[in-house]
Design brief:
Keywords: Antiport, Cell membrane, Ion transport, Membrane, Transmembrane, Transmembrane helix, Transport. 84% of the residues lie in helices and 0% in strands. It is mainly alpha-helical and 491 residues long. About 3% of the residues have low confidence.
Length: 491
């Protein structure tokens, strides 16, 4: 049912191709969100300070990932998909190797730098209002970010391997890799956070009077919040190793070969040219998020930050379908352009826009109807003030959900055509031209407080969807896909 060959993408029904490719990606993204929820659940059992510490690190981690993971991921997916579509298998193999090489080099350099500067970065983030967080929160945040930074090379190699599979049209293997990573994370999270004997994972055994010889002789005290970050890294590593083993065993006509394992400057330059704007797009968003974190701290303190991170986690679940469709559409658009089928690439984008906006509309209605239930489901231990703010945030976010779905798929159309710079410029306008001014002026100057930040996010999402839709219509009428097809078939 979910078997998909390259010719199915370029010759078969477009809706089926999008669905078949996106369903494993949907499951994969659900797995990733479950991993985030599991982390939040176990970290929440440590303390409210631990939850706030994770919230502080989110913008910094995403900026780190934007450079070390997103650049090789997007570049690899788009380049591999176009070359597979044009039946340039040797070029696709070279693109995968170049992506892995870039991910490894950036991860080692940037991860080491981030580890060394973890505490100064957290201090800088809170410099406008240091009293908003205790020293304990700052120490926890620096520890969590530092461990994550050390493992970013492993995460980058794993995600770039997934990108190559997705570009090839094999989203099932990406799912297998993520399911493996989640299984490892589920097992290790409570053990590494709380220790072997003290782990809540084993509480039922203690209540039943069960005590194995292993439990009686083994003692591991746990490493707290660092354990949550370390469990993620180990999960990424094992999931990535599975993908590389499948590559070595010849999956998909042999996605790597000895002849492909060479430094090709043209491929590296092309991959970075495609991926760098996507990394910049994420950086543009997260630099604004850094400012928003400061505004949230300044107007609502720790309760506001806890509500902010809960909203981030819940919305991560809600956008999973559209994010899956975006990844699928990038491969479908890329392969069709590689085959010289610009009309199919155009239709695939519009089909994806309709599907993503429709699904996000339904999810937005659910979130608008039961926000309190969702807050308690994700973090049942929040304070009353943090819960109230989180409920308000979820209601406001829901109004802009259909726009998020539409914007994601318009970006997929541009990205599949190698127009990642367009998505980057759109994000600059969305986050710096709309979101930042509304949040800063409304939250601080006009004293509307943290709710100005909530509304800034929703309004910017709606404006971005309208702007991207209008420019997409103009660009395709001006022959964007025809030119992209000529470039792809010439590789």
């Amino acid at each position: 049912m979910f078997d998909l060959e390259p010719e199915d993408i370029t010759d078969g029904p477009l809706f089926r191709g999008l669905v078949v490719l996106s369903v494993p990606l949907l499951a994969q993204n659900v797995v990733q969100v479950i991993q985030q929820v599991i982390d939040l659940f176990w970290v929440g059992r440590l303390s409210n300070d631990a939850v706030a510490a994770v919230g502080l690190t989110v913008p910094l981690i995403v900026i780190l990932f934007a450079v070390s993971i997103v650049i090789p991921f997007v570049g690899t997916q788009v380049l591999v998909s176009q070359r597979v579509g044009s039946e340039n298998i040797s070029g696709a193999r070279r693109a995968m190797f170049s992506g892995l090489l870039i991910a490894a080099c950036i991860g080692i350099v940037l991860g080491g730098l981030a580890f060394v500067t973890a505490r100064p970065l957290i201090d800088l983030l809170l410099s406008t209002r240091p009293e908003a967080a205790t020293n304990h929160v700052i120490e926890l945040a620096a520890a969590y970010f530092g461990v994550t930074a050390l493992g970013v090379c492993i995460s980058g190699i794993s995600d770039t391997t997934e990108a190559a599979f997705i570009g090839w049209g094999d989203s099932r293997t990406a799912l297998y890799m993520n399911a493996t990573a989640l299984s490892v994370n589920i097992l290790l999270d409570p053990i590494l956070i709380f220790g072997f004997r003290e782990s809540p994972l084993f509480e039922p055994l203690g209540l039943m009077g069960v005590q194995s010889t292993l439990f009686s002789v083994t003692h591991f005290a746990g490493i707290g919040i660092e354990g949550a970050a370390l469990a993620n890294i180990i999960g990424y590593g094992i999931g990535g190793a599975l993908g590389l083993v499948l590559v070595a065993r010849g999956r998909n006509e042999g996605m790597l070969s000895r002849s492909a394992a060479q430094i090709n400057r043209d491929d590296i330059r092309e991959l970075i040219d495609i991926g760098a704007p996507s990394g910049g797009q994420l950086i543009a968003k997260q630099t604004v998020e850094l400012v928003l974190v400061v505004v949230v701290f300044g107007t609502a303190g720790a309760a506001g930050l806890a509500a902010y991170i809960v909203g981030f986690r819940v919305s991560s679940v809600a956008v999973v379908p559209s994010d899956s469709l975006r990844q699928a559409a990038q491969s479908v658009v890329g392969q069709n352009l590689g085959a010289g089928l610009s009309g199919r690439a155009h239709r695939a984008t519009w089909i994806g826009v309709g599907a993503a906006a429709g699904v996000l509309l339904l999810l937005g209605i659910v979130q608008w109807a039961i926000p309190s239930t969702l807050v308690h489901l994700f973090v049942p231990s929040l304070s009353p003030e943090a819960t109230r703010l989180a409920v308000d945030y979820l209601v406001i976010l829901a109004y802009g959900y259909p726009a998020i779905g539409a914007a994601y798929l318009f970006q997929a159309g541009f990205n599949g055509a190698r127009r990642t710079k367009t998505s980057f410029v759109a994000s600059l306008f969305q986050y710096w031209g709309v979101r930042f001014p509304i949040a800063a002026v409304g939250g601080i100057v006009l004293s509307f407080g943290v709710h100005a930040v909530f509304w800034a996010i929703t309004i910017s999402n709606i404006v971005a969807a309208i702007g991207l839709g209008g420019y997409y219509h103009y660009s395709t009428a001006d022959g964007m896909f025809d030119r992209a097809a000529e470039t792809a078939t010439a590789d």
